[in-house]
Specification:
The chain has about 625 residues and is α/β, with parallel strands linked by helices. It has helices at about 5-25, 25-65, 70-115, 120-125, 130-140, 150-170, 170-220, 220-225, 230-280, 285-330, 395-405, 425-430, 445-450, 460-470, 475, 495-510, 525-535, 555-560, 580-585, 585-600, 610-625, and strands at about 350-360, 370-380, 385-390, 410-415, 420, 435, 445, 485, 515-520, 545-550, 565-570, 570-575. Strands 6-9-10-3-11-12 form a 6-stranded mixed sheet, sandwiched between helices. Strands 2-1-4-5 form a 4-stranded antiparallel sheet, with helices on one face. It is elongated, with a radius of gyration of 36 Å. The structure holds adenosine-5'-triphosphate and magnesium ion (MG). Adenosine-5'-triphosphate binds near residues 390, 392, 438 and 608.
C-alpha cells in the first residue's frame, strides 16, 4: 500500500465515519459524552491516587499510624470516581452499540429494498452470492469502526487533557509525556497500516471460502452424481489453506506489535520515575505529583489503542462501503406511469406486441447487445389463448418477460388493453398480468402463504379454488397439515410438477386478467397439463376470466390454443391454428413431432431449464474450471 492510497483510504474512511455521525448525531453525542467523562475521570483518578499516596499513605508510614478520617475520605473519592467511570463506560458502550447496530439495520434494509427495485437486467449481471454479501458482511464491515469510534474520540480529548495537566504539574514530566504519547500513537498507526492489507486479504478469502462451500452444497447433486467429491474438496482445501496462512500472518503481526504496545507505556512510567526522582530531589515536584503522573502513564496506555482500532478498521470499512454504495447508487429501476386499469374489471385483458425488438444488455458495457427479438407483432385477444412455440433459445421466455414488463423493449411497444405497459402504474401491472415462470420458485413458508402471498382479500376459499384450477388441490389436501404445511427449502419437499402447480395457483389467486405461462407445466404429465389448460379456458366452470399466453411443447396442449405463434431466432415466422401450422410449416411440424416422439419413447425431450439440464449445464462449468 503506498502512502498515497493509504491517505486516500484515511480520507474516505473519515468521510464514512462523518456520514455515520450525521445519521445518528444524538446517539453519537451520548456515546462521546460517556467516553469524555471516562477520559477526564481517568486523569482525575491519577491525581486522586497521587493525593492518597502523597497525602495519606506516606505521612501515615512516617507517623506509624493511619488517620481514619483521611483514609475514609480517600476511599470515598476513589469509589465516587469509579462509579462515575462506570456511568461513562456504560454510556459509551451503549451508545456505540446502538449506533453501530442501528446503522447496520438501516443499511441492510436500504440494500435489500434497492435489490427489489432494481430491474431484472441488473440482477442478471450480479451473482446471488455477491448480493448476499453486500447485504450482510459489506454492510457490517462498513460500520465496524463505529464500535470503537466514541472511545477513540474520548481518548483524543483525554490525551489533550493529560498533556495539559502534565504541563501544569511540571514541564520536565510533560516533555516525557510529549515523547511517549505521540510515540504510542505512531506505533498504533504503523500497526494498523501493516494490519489493514492482511485483514483485507483475510476478509476476501473468507468470502471466497464460503462462496466455494456454498457452491458445493448447492451443486451437491452434481458433485455426487459425477463423482467430483475429491476435486471439490481439494478446491475447497486450497482456499481454506490460503485463509489459514492469511490469518496466521495476522496473528504474527499481532504477536510482534502487541508486546510493543504493552511495553512502551511501561517504559514511559520508568522514564517518569527517573526524571521525577530528579525533580523531586530538586524540590520542583511533590511525591503526590510524581505518583499521579506515573499512574497516569499506566492508565493511558489502553485507551490510546482505541484510536488504533478505528484506524485498523477503516480500510475494511471503506471497501464494504464502496460495495454497499454500488448497490444504493445503481440506477435503471423502471419508471412507472400513472395510468390505472380497474383491478375489479371482470373481463379478460388484451395483450398486444407491436414491432417489438429486444436485446439483453451485454455483460460488459462496450460489447454490443445481441438482438434476441426483432419485429415481433402479435395479439392475444381478450379471452383467447395463444400458444407460443419455438425451438430452445428462440426467445419465448423473453416474450413472456416483456408481456408482464419484467424488461422493456428497445423498440416497439407492448400494450395491455391498448395502453403501453410503460404508462401503467406498478399496481395496475401486477393486478392485471401474472407470469408463471419457467423455473418455479417456492418460498420457505406454508402452502397458504405461498399461494396467497399476503394479498388482501385472498381467502382460504380463494386459495383452494386456485389450487383446484392448477390441479394442485389433490396433493395439497394429502399434505400432513394441508394449507398449513411448510414447503420450500426447509419444509416438505415438493416434486418438480408439484412446485409448478403451486406457482400456477399463486398466479391464479390474484385473479389476473392476463395469464402468461412460460413452460409452466413442463414437469406435469401430459394429461394433467391438458386438463389444467382446459380448466383455465373455461370461465363458466370457475376458470379465471383471463386471456392466456402459453409457452408449450406438447401437441395436446398446443391444440387447445385459439392461435399458435411460431417463433424462430426471435422472429415470428408463422402463425395460425395448430392444424394449419402442422400442415404448412415444416420446422414447426418437426419440432412438435420430435417432442412428441421423444415422450412416447420414454425419453423426455431435454427442456432448457429442467432440473436435469440445470444439473448438466452446471457440470460444464465445473469441467471448464
Ligand atoms: N439474461 C440474459 N442475458 C443475455 N442473453 C440472454 C439472457 N437470457 C436469455 N438470453 C438469450 O436470449 C435468447 C432467447 O432466450 P429465451 O430464454 O427467451 O429463449 P427461450 O425461447 O425461452 O428458450 P427455452 O425454450 O430454452 O426456454 C437466447 O439466445 C439466450 O441465449
Ligand atoms: Mg424459455
Amino acid at each position: 500500500m503506498t502512502s498515497r492510497t493509504s491517505r486516500d483510504v484515511l480520507r474516505r474512511g473519515l468521510s464514512v465515519l462523518g456520514r455515520a455521525i450525521r445519521e445518528q448525531p444524538r446517539i453519537f453525542a451520548v456515546a462521546v459524552s460517556g467516553s469524555v467523562l471516562f477520559g477526564l475521570l481517568v486523569i482525575a483518578s491519577a491525581y486522586v491516587v497521587g493525593a492518597v499516596v502523597g497525602d495519606v499513605v506516606v505521612p501515615a508510614i512516617a507517623r506509624g499510624s493511619v488517620g481514619v478520617a483521611a483514609l475514609a475520605l480517600a476511599a470515598g473519592a476513589l469509589f465516587g470516581i469509579s462509579v462515575l467511570r462506570v456511568v461513562g463506560i456504560f454510556g459509551r458502550r451503549l451508545g456505540a452499540g446502538y449506533m453501530q447496530f442501528r446503522l447496520q439495520a438501516a443499511y441492510r434494509r436500504q440494500v435489500t429494498r434497492r435489490y427489489l427495485d432494481l430491474p431484472l437486467s441488473w440482477h442478471q449481471r450480479n451473482a446471488t452470492g455477491t448480493l448476499l454479501s453486500n447485504a450482510n458482511s459489506d454492510v457490517e464491515a462498513a460500520w465496524y469502526p463505529i464500535a470503537p469510534l466514541p472511545f477513540a474520540v474520548g481518548t483524543v480529548v483525554m490525551l489533550v487533557g493529560a498533556i495539559a495537566s502534565l504541563f501544569v504539574t511540571d514541564w520536565a514530566l510533560a516533555l516525557v509525556g510529549l515523547a511517549v504519547f505521540p510515540a504510542l500513537f505512531a506505533l498504533n498507526v504503523v500497526y494498523s497500516r501493516r494490519m489493514a492489507p492482511r485483514q483485507a486479504r483475510a476478509q476476501r478469502l473468507r468470502a471466497e471460502v464460503s462462496g466455494i462451500a456454498h457452491e458445493s452444497f448447492d451443486g451437491a447433486l452434481v458433485v455426487k452424481t459425477m463423482g467430483r467429491e475429491a476435486q471439490e474438496t481439494a478446491r475447497f482445501a486450497a482456499r481454506a489453506g490460503e485463509l489459514r496462512d492469511a490469518l496466521i500472518s495476522v496473528g504474527r503481526l499481532r504477536g510482534v506489535f502487541d508486546p510493543m504496545l504493552e511495553t512502551l507505556p511501561s517504559l514511559g512510567t520508568l522514564a517518569v520515575l527517573v526524571v521525577g526522582a530528579f525533580r523531586l530531589r530538586q524540590g520542583a515536584i511533590t511525591v503526590t505529583e510524581l505518583v499521579s503522573v506515573a499512574f497516569l502513564f499506566t492508565v493511558l496506555a489502553f485507551p490510546v489503542r482505541a484510536i488504533g482500532w478505528v484506524l485498523a478498521e477503516l480500510p475494511r470499512s471503506v471497501a464494504g462501503w464502496d460495495r454497499v454504495r454500488r448497490v444504493l447508487d445503481a440506477t435503471g429501476e423502471m419508471p412507472y406511469g400513472d395510468v390505472t386499469l380497474d383491478p375489479a374489471d371482470p373481463t379478460p385483458a388484451t395483450l398486444a406486441f407491436a414491432d417489438v425488438g429486444f436485446a439483453y444488455e451485454p455483460a460488459e458495457a462496450h460489447l454490443p447487445g445481441a438482438e434476441v427479438l426483432g419485429e415481433v407483432t402479435f395479439t392475444v385477444p381478450a379471452g383467447k389463448t395463444v400458444a407460443l412455440v419455438g425451438p430452445t433459445g428462440s426467445g419465448k421466455s423473453t416474450v413472456a418477460a416483456l408481456a408482464v414488463r419484467l424488461v422493456d423493449p428497445q423498440s416497439g411497444t407492448v400494450s395491455l388493453d391498448g395502453v403501453d405497459v410503460r404508462r401503467l402504474t406498478a399496481a395496475s401491472l401486477a393486478g392485471t398480468a401474472a407470469l408463471v415462470a419457467q423455473v418455479p420458485f417456492v418460498f420457505d413458508d406454508t402452502v397458504r402463504a405461498n399461494v396467497a402471498l399476503d394479498r388482501p382479500g385472498v381467502t382460504d376459499d380463494d386459495v383452494w379454488a386456485a389450487l383446484r384450477l392448477a390441479e394442485a388441490d389433490g396433493f395439497v389436501a394429502a399434505l400432513p397439515e394441508g394449507l398449513d404445511t411448510m414447503v420450500g427449502e426447509r419444509g416438505t419437499s415438493l416434486s418438480g410438477g408439484q412446485r409448478q402447480r403451486l406457482t400456477l395457483a399463486r398466479a391464479l389467486a390474484g385473479r389476473p386478467r392476463l395469464l402468461v405461462l412460460d413452460d409452466a407445466t413442463s414437469a406435469v404429465d401430459p394429461r394433467v397439463e391438458a386438463a389444467i389448460l382446459a380448466g383455465l379456458r373455461a370461465p363458466a366452470a370457475g376458470g379465471p376470466a383471463a386471456s392466456i399466453l402459453v409457452v408449450a411443447y406438447r401437441r395436446a396442449t398446443i391444440a387447445l390454443a385459439d392461435e399458435v405463434i411460431y417463433l424462430e431466432q426471435g422472429r415470428v415466422v408463422a402463425r395460425g391454428t395448430h392444424a394449419e401450422l402442422l400442415a404448412t410449416v415444416s420446422g414447426y411440424a418437426d419440432l412438435v413431432t420430435a417432442y412428441e416422439q421423444a415422450e412416447v419413447d420414454g425419453e423426455p425431450q431435454p427442456r432448457p431449464y429442467d432440473e436435469v439440464t440445470a444439473l448438466t449445464s452446471g457440470l460444464e462449468v465445473e469441467v471448464d474450471r
